[in-house]
Every structure is written in structure tokens, then in C-alpha cells.
Amino acid sequence: MTGVDRTHGSGGIATSKLIDEVFKKAFSNEYLNKLGDSAVVPGYDRLAVTTDSFVVKPVFFPGGDIGRLAVCGTVNDLLMSGAKPVYLTAGYILEEGLEAKALERIAHSMAETAKEAGVVIAAGDTKVVEPADPGNPGLMINTSGVGFVSEGTEISPERIRPGDAVIISGNLGDHHAAILSTRMSVKNSILSDAAPLTEMVGRLIGSGTEVHAMRDITRGGLATILNEFSDASGIHIRIEERKLPVSEEVAGFAGLLGLDPLYMGNEGKCVFILPEDQADAALDIIRSSRYGANASIIGYTDDAKQGVTMITSIGGEKVVTPLYGEGLPRIC
Amino acid sequence: MESEHTIEYLKNYNGREIRLMEVCGTHSAEIRRNGIPSMLSDRIHMITGPGCPVCVTVSGYIDRLIELSRDSRNVIVSFGDMLRVPGSCSDLIHAKAEGADIRYVYSPFDMLGMAAEDREHIYIFAAVGFETTAPVYAALISEALEQGVENIRLLTSLKTMPGAIERIADGVDGFLAPGHVAVITGTGDYEALASKLGLPFVISGFRGKELLSSIYALTRMAERSEAGCMNLYPQAVVKEGNPSARNAVKKFFEAGDAVWRGMGMIPASGMYLTEEYQKYDAGSRGIAGDAEISGCKCAQVITGKLTPGECPMFGKACTAEHPVGVCMVSQEGACFIMSSG
């Protein structure tokens, strides 16, 4: 096979061949290999279930690809509800003309990422459609995920209390800046941070740290998530601009475009809200985890009126609002 | 330390009430982003000026774009900011929903590739901007000439600042002059305006500390009713500006009268493609319609007569999530900036 064509979506021999040569080869495991209409897997009594679709263009970008993203996005969503991610399904919408090599590379990247994240891709589906841009066929991926939640684990923003610490697991804006750089053909060394946070979150929860709320920092950025937390809990969050970790290169790139890292998306970072007296120990765990080296305590919750404010680097205080609009680069 | 002195002074300023206008939209955004209003005495009022290019563009311009978009031979290309800007009775999003081919890009140069690959259509860029953006459009035409791409046009709404500043100076005690514009134009325009209007001007950088120092300098000058232009952004702005950018603009554009939203016609404040390059123009001259949405106070906000909070629609019928007026639609507009912190 050199490229995807209509026959690969037919449900006939070509489809089977595609599944065997690309997906079964990459994901091989006892559940998927049966190729049944649905995978039958061992279970648990508290399940977390989620789904997400990935349509990013370009499909390959510095630091990752759509396949790695499709695994990380769903795995991290499961982790954020306190679940241990276990199974994924993967649905592919392939555009006719997509090169086989590209598809294999993406499947391989998904398999590697799934392995790192400790999940099994237990079921899948493929469809072939006409390309939206005939000169540049791509693909879209949907992943659904199932995770197991231990008895007693309750993580949700309603549990936030005054006096909690706000920790973020690393530098803001990397994924957003990497994608924009590629789209705009800007040469720099910014890499997407797409990563599964299984180890970090597993260690933190495993240590007995009482995490009140956590969320992965994706589209809408940190500012939007903190506002959602404040809305859900009725509690004021005050962060400090000086404590926000942002790499110099991302800060420079964002500055040029008039983008604010507070509103930029990541794919391998999360924010934790937990009691202040556990914050230092939690920070040690996060920093010693893979992908957590730049973690930082960025602020605290208090009794002030609901909302999110930030002490700016020059000492002013401002209201931090959620993202409105699309976060477009400024034009002047 | 000087910065501590600056901070103390601005916090405790007890002189006459002063109104300082920042002309540039990016200054407005950075002042709020840095939380500077929380650091100023309540006798110092920062007012946003006409520095949002989309905001000062009249509804007649959007009407013209919509009219062009209805011709199936045309493709309209624009920055995303323009899509929701209201014309007199519709906007580009509705025109797109009705079947017009309207695309948005991050750079005008993206349009060249589109036009080169599809010679069947005319690609029209919504070329809105100030002195800062004009060199980009000059470069675009220059590149199109070089590549032999003839099926592109500009519908320009390009404006120059000095005339507008003069028009709205009444009631303003000092101006933070636009830093990016001055990078191109140099300091001369603002020196001339300062002496003509008898007001202080400070050309400022964009970082929080630079803005604080500039507001400090401007407050000191305004307090003493001192006229003059101070350049506190010398790392980027030199007296003569950027002559090569200006020459590039001069090659393709010439001054002409322009109508500004809420300000009427300001002589010679527009930039239009010259006779020689007319074939690249999509009918930019003479656009004048300045319709207002009922209840919307954008015209007064742009001219500093009202703050966004004084518009009865602000935060109620007109929000960042569901914008009505152009100052809320554009991310460089005063209302959007105020409601996004």
C-alpha cells in the first residue's frame, strides 16, 4: 500500500489489509487482535469515560504529531478526573490520498505514546473520505478512553477551599506556539509539549496528596481553567505573574504576536489545586516526575470575592478573564 | 530606586485631575494587562484613543466588502478580526453563510499563494491598518509584481494618525504617542503636534515598566502644562523613523481624504494606491458611510468622549462573548480590552 484510497474505507479486503498492515501491526494486543465488533475487556466498578476528536493541522509538528496528541488528550482527560487510564479506542477518518508512510508513522507514534501512558488501544475503526484540500490529504482521529477510579477518589472544583495552593506542572504555551510557528513557517526550536501525564499524576495521587481539583491546560489556556474553577467553587484565586513558568523562546514568540501565555494551549501540562500545607511536598513530587521539571506554585486561593486576579510583574493587580474569541494574533 | 519613586508618585499623585490618552491599541491592551490602572491615583485617567484600526473603519467599508463578496468571481481575504465587524446592515460572517467565498489568514502574504494557484478568481484583501501596516501591503504588491500575480486587489482602509489626534485632542491633557507607528514615521509628526496643540507627548515602549515610566513622564509634563515630545522608546524609535519602510509605502500609496468612524472626514489622513497601481485597487476611494448601531457608543469611545463602561450596552447587550459594537468585536478595541481584564 502506498496511499489511502476509497477502497480502504469499503469494509472489504482493502480495509482488512489496512487494519492488518498499519493498525494491528502498531497496536497489537490481546483485545484488539480479536478484531471483534467490540472488544471485551476486564472491568472495574467505578469507571471514567471520555472522548475527544483531533483535527489539528499540520498533522506532524515539532515535538509530536496528531497520533501522539490523540492519545495524550484522552489519557490526560481521564487522569484529571482521578482515574487510572486503561483502555482507548481509536477512530480514524482518513482523507483519500494520505500517504501510507505518514499513516504508519502516526500509528507507530500512537502505539509508543499508549505504551508510555500505560493504556491499551482495544478497539478501532477507519473510514475514508474525500480530502477537504485535495493537494494536502490529512486525517482526523477520535479517541475514547476508559479509566478506573479508586474508591474514595473525589476530585472536582467544588472541593476547592480558601487557603489552597495553585500549582502548574510546567511551562505554558509550548504546544500552541509550536503549532502556530509551523503554520506560519516561523523557524525556531519550540517543541510541542504533548505528553501523557500518567506517571506524574499517578505518583501525586499515590502519595496521598489531597488534590482538590486538577485540569489539563489545553485550549483556552490557564486563565480560562482558573475562571472555571472559581465559578464552580465560588472561591477567589490570586496568581502571581512572576511565578508563571514560560520559556524565553515561547515568551518572545507570544510577545511578537501579541498572544498571552495565560491563554495559550498546552497538551502535556496541568494545574493542581491542593491544600497549602501539602504544596511543597506535592511540588517535589511533580518536579521529580517526567515532564514536571519546571512546575511552580503560582498562587493561592483566599476569602476575597469570587474571580481570578493576578499580581502583575510590575506590581499591579488585574482581573484575569476567561478567553473570549479565538486568541488571534494582533494585527498592529 | 527610580522605579519605586515612580510607583509612589503615580499612586499618590494629588495634583489637578488629568486625562491621558493612549493612542495605540497595543498600549491600551498592555496597560490593562499589566494592571497599571490599579497603580494610578484616581486623579490620573487613562483613556483609550483611536488606535484600533478596525474600530475607526467606517461601516461603508464593510458594506463595500460585502458587495464585492457577492460577485462569485471574487474571493475576499481578511484577518479574522474583520469577520464580525458590523456594516450598515450585515457582516462578513453572514455574507459567508450566504455563500460568499471569504477566507481569513494570519498574513496578507498567504493570499499570494492562493491567487497564484487560482487565476480564475480575483483575490481581494481587506487592507485595514495604520502607518505600521501600510509597509506590509506595499511589500505585498511589490511581491505580486515580481511574481506576476495579477489577480489580487486591495480594498484599503489605511490611515495616518496625526490628523485624528488633532481632531480629538480637546479635553486631553497629554498623549502616549503610538510606539509602533513612530518606529516607522519617526518623532517629527509628534513634535509638530505637541507644539501645535500645546500638549505633552511621550513616545512609549510596550513593557509594563516602560509604560509606567512614560505615564510618569507624561503626568509630570501635564501637571506643569508643559508642551513637547519626549521619546522614551529610543531603542526602537529614532528621529527619522524607518525611511526604507516609508519609501516602500510612498512608492505605492499617496495621501487622500479619509472618513473615520465617529470623526468624519479628516483631510489627507488616508493612504490610497497611486494612479500607477490603480489596477490593484478594489474601489477604496470615497467610502464614507458611517452608520451607527442603535444604542452603540463606539463613536464616542473611539474619540475618548466616553469610557467603555459609560456605554449603556457595555457588559449587558454587548459583551466580549456576544459583541455588538466594533470596539467589542475587535480584539484591539477599547471595549474588548476593558472587558478582558
What does this 3D model show about the protein?
The complex is a heterodimer of chains A (about 325) and B (about 350). Chain A folds into two domains: about 5-150, 2-Layer Sandwich (60s Ribosomal Protein L30, Chain: A), CATH 3.30.1330.10; about 155-320, Phosphoribosyl-aminoimidazole Synthetase, Chain A, domain 2. Chain A has about 325 residues and is α+β, with helices and mostly antiparallel strands. Chain A contains eight helices and 13 strands. Chain A starts with 12 loop residues before the first helix and ends in a 13-residue tail after the last strand. In chain A, the strands form three sheets. Chain A has a seven-stranded mixed β-sheet with strand order 8-10-7-11-9-12-13. A four-stranded mixed β-sheet of chain A has the order 1-6-4-5, covered by helices on one side. The longest helix of chain A has 18 residues, at about 100-115. Chain B is α/β, with parallel strands linked by helices and about 350 residues long. In chain B, the strands form two sheets. Chain B has a six-stranded mixed β-sheet with strand order 4-3-5-6-11-10, with helices on both faces. Chain B has a five-stranded parallel β-sheet with strand order 2-1-7-8-9. In chain B, strand 5 (about 120-130), helix 7 (about 135-145) and strand 6 (about 150-160) form a beta-alpha-beta unit. The interface of A and B includes residues 320, 326 and 332 of A.
